[in-house]
Specification:
This protein is mainly beta. It has three domains: 120 residues, Immunoglobulin-like, CATH 2.60.40.10; 86 residues, Immunoglobulins (Immunoglobulin-like); 84 residues, Immunoglobulin-like (Sandwich), CATH 2.60.40. It has one helix and 26 strands. The strands form six sheets. A six-stranded mixed sheet has the order 1-9-8-3-4-5, covered by helices on one side. It has a five-stranded mixed sheet with strand order 20-26-25-22-23, with no helix packed on it.
Length: 312
């Protein structure tokens, strides 16, 4: 049974605590996660002996401690612990509705009543963050990319990165008002890379990743190889192109298909019939584009002269 002195103490704390200055200091407001715990402790607990201590949440009493006993009110009985030496209050199994102001009131055995307050903000942990991007192929200069993010929890900030550098808005990169989606229109090859979106709050964060590949080309088609060779030698012509995905190749000789579909055209042993124009065509299966380049090869015939000596 709670004594009359206990109720008298409650009445005194309620009547007089609000009129005195706050001298108990707390370093900073607290943040907590749903289901987690937090500890409130003044930075400057009184050095004198204490007669009565009381913790409030808003207008609700959490506990009252006398010199020889501590009474925890029913709503908090299984959720708090109290250290009478440091005046620290631990609150466990946090809920969103625990957010608010917490006030500590102390009546020393001698001296003025002391009060101080701090605040708590409870957040839901961030989970299930993911990025949803375009499923169709992205072609440079023709199509647009729309990336949207999803996640659960108390989200206080959203950050976007591309290849580990901050992704900033521009003429072609536009963020939604809540920063949870981004539109890139039209896409350029420089937009290829790894995109990251991070959801944050003061107690948790989670990041999702998505890679974009921008297709382009072919372009800058070139053929490397000799222009003039002697007959009877081996010749290789190599074709290259700038393309994403890699281009496929085909070759023509003097306008006729050769059936060669590799990037290299090889002649094992040249003769005069191999002189002419070699045309390489590079194709991109996604962009449906093709570009051709020609290379002229001259095979020199070796002419042998026989010198006949007249008979004497």
């Amino acid at each position: 049974m709670v004594s009359r002195g206990f109720y008298w103490t409650l009445w005194m704390l309620s009547c007089f605590g609000q009129y005195l200055g706050e001298v108990l200091q707390f370093s900073q407001p607290a943040n907590g996660a749903v289901g987690g715990s937090v500890v409130f402790a003044p930075d400057n607990p009184p050095s004198t002996s204490i007669f009565t201590i009381q913790w409030h949440f808003e207008t609700t009493v959490i506990l009252t401690a006398l010199s020889d006993s501590t009474a925890i009110f029913p709503a908090y009985r299984d959720r708090v612990s109290f250290d009478i030496n440091t005046l620290a209050l631990e609150l466990r199994n946090l809920r969103l509705d625990d957010s608010g102001t917490y006030r500590l009131t102390v009546i020393p055995s001698a001296g003025d009543l002391l009060t101080g307050e701090t605040s708590l903000q409870v957040f839901e942990n961030i989970t299930n963050v993911r990025l949803i991007g375009p499923e169709e192929s992205l072609i440079e200069g023709e199509t647009s990319a729309y990336i949207t993010s999803e996640g659960t929890g108390s989200i206080t900030s959203v950050q976007w990165m591309k290849d580990n550098s901050p992704l900033s808005p521009s003429n072609s990169i536009i963020f939604s008002s809540d920063y949870r989606s981004v539109s890139i229109s039209p896409v350029q090859r420089s937009d290829s890379g790894e995109y990251k979106c991070t959801y944050r709050n003061p107690v948790s964060s989670e990041t999702a990743k998505l890679s974009l590949i921008i297709t382009y080309g072919p372009e800058d088609v070139s053929i490397k190889g000799q222009d003039v060779v002697d007959s009877g030698v081996r010749v290789s012509l190599s074709c290259s192109a700038n393309s994403e995905p890699s281009a496929s190749f085909s070759w023509k000789f003097n306008g006729a298909d050769t059936g060669v579909t590799t990037d290299t055209f090889t002649i094992d042993q040249t003769d005069f019939t191999h002189s002419g124009d070699y045309e390489c065509t590079a194709r991109n299966s996604v962009t449906k584009r093709s570009v051709s380049q020609k290379h002229t090869l001259l095979v020199k015939e070796i002419i042998t002269f026989c010198l006949i000596q007249p008979e004497v």
